[in-house]
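yo

u said u wanted the structure for the complex thing, so here. seqs first:
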Amino acid sequence: KQEVTQIPAALSVPEGENLVLNCSFTDSAIYNLQWFRQDPGKGLTSLLLIQSSQREQTSGRLNASLDKSSGRSTLYIAASQPGDSATYLCAVSIKAAGNKLTFGGGTRVLVKP
Amino acid sequence: EAQVTQNPRYLITVTGKKLTVTCSQNMNHEYMSWYRQDPGLGLRQIYYSMNVEVTDKGDVPEGYKVSRKEKRNFPLILESPSPNQTSLYFCASRGPGSPQPQHFGDGTRLSIL
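structre next:
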């Protein structure tokens, strides 16, 4: 059974520092991996999707890497801002079960001004 | 604007009183799903639908029903709600073809007394 772990559960950094968020998964037979942002009282916003054949994806200050063989993904956020404060979730999907997403527990990030 | 809309956003009700949470998407997506989010357990899939009239169980389907009579709507039905169904619920949809990100609604917070 696929399990997804995110460490640390919470992270506090001063504004301007780079953020590094980790995600690990137990079964490397994934279809893709997706990073989401969740703000309090809001739904999930998709940040980046990495297909299983890719090694990384970039969008603005965000960069996500994928090492399928070791079961790891890392989300880098450059030059953090207070507006980056949120919970970040990673999720992996398998091709079966309609590409069901299995989520990690999330990392709650606070960027202090 | 592309969106997934859930209603209601908040609901407090009592054990045994049937309720329906509606979900509608305006992106003509074939795939839709329901998740629940609980502290310490993360997000878990309840049901999903690959297309109209095609639905299947996710990881935690007990106590829930769904229907998919039209492509845009995917309601979640609790026939006889119980306190252990108190949770934050999310509806999601995804487009067809090569890996597509899932789009989530803003969530419905249900409290069953």
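The CA atoms of residues 41 and 50 of chain A lie 26 Å apart. The mean pLDDT of chain A is 93.
cya
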